[in-house]
Amino acid sequence: MRKILVVLAGIFINMITYGALIAAEAAEKAVEAGKTDPLAYIGLALAIGLPALGTAWAQARIGSAGAGTLAERPEMAVWVLILLAIPETIVILGFVVAFMLLLKI
Prior knowledge:
Blueprint: H1 2-33, H2 38-72, H3 77-85, H4 88-103
Helix pairs in contact: 1-2, 2-3, 2-4
């Protein structure tokens, strides 16, 4: 169990640093071009990254509980699929917010 936590922590740190590097590079280009505030690109990275992490965590919990439920009651398949789809809307809203930030709406 400890090895899995170390691997997951490494993946999490990698995603955060990669997102920060992309945001920093985009911010530098924007400042050179005089287009927009560099913090907007950090907001873009956070608007997509944080909901994605939360959704992944929620779907992992729902998926494992749903698998147990389906083993005992196969007629609950539709409810399990609905419950798996609900957290995905958070990521879609994250993309919408990032798009609005990008276009300065």
